[in-house]
Amino acid sequence: MFKVDDYIMYGITGVCKVIDITNEKFINGEKRDYYVLSPIHNNNTIIKIPLDNNKIPMRKIISKGDVTSLINDMPNMDTLWIDDEKKRNNQFKMMLKSGKCEDLIKLIFNKRYAKSTSKKLNKADKEIIKEAERLLHEEFAIILNISPNEVNSYIASQIAY
């Protein structure tokens, strides 16, 4: 269970702050507990999600130590490339939905891999990779106290490809 002021990753919405936990009554009289979430990079939105939600993955953001470990491991991470476009797209979608930092990094690496091997990314691949970059950059930015636009530079300064 999350607490008020926790930062969490909420599906493909991205980093959200838990701003409240409420109990609301429905028309049928049923009461449910909800997290009230505020997406970090969309201040005009408030999301209410049941505490017992199991459809959209939610997790606490990773620690600064985890970010450092992930960055240090990047040169050793495998690229996941699937030649069959349909299978690749399905795999990419599953990885994006998982929201795991390792999966997001592997998705992002496919852009560099495709460029270095003259493989072609289709439009759907590019959109998924762009979403993976947004999610990863948002999470790393909150943890490192930098803007999402500074994440690539930060990573580059920490490792040599």
Summarize the structure.
With about 160 residues, the chain is α+β, with helices and mostly antiparallel strands. The chain is about 45% helix and about 20% strand. The chain has 5 helices and 5 strands; from the N terminus they run βββββααααα.
Structural notes for this entry:
This protein is α+β, with helices and mostly antiparallel strands. 44% of the residues lie in helices and 20% in strands. It has 5 helices and 5 strands. The protein has a 5-stranded antiparallel β-sheet with strand order 4-3-2-1-5. α2 packs parallel to α4 and α3 crosses α4. The radius of gyration is 18 Å and the shape is globular. The chain starts with 6 loop residues before the first strand and ends with a helix. The model has no long low-confidence stretch (mean pLDDT 91).
Q: Give the N-to-C terminal Cα separation.
A: 38 Å
Mean pLDDT: 91
Give the SSE order as H and E letters: EEEEEHHHHH
Low-confidence stretches: none
Q: What's the quaternary structure here? A: single chain
Helix and strand composition category: alpha+beta
Rg from alpha-carbon coordinates: 18 Å
Sheet with the most strands, sense and barrel status: 5 strands, antiparallel
DSSP helical segment count: 5
Helix content: 40-55%
How do the helices and strands line up, and which of them pair or pack?
Layout: E1 7-10, E2 14-25, E3 31-39, E4 47-50, E5 58-60, H1 64-73, H2 85-98, H3 101-117, H4 123-144, H5 151-158
Antiparallel strand pairs: 1-2, 1-5, 2-3, 3-4
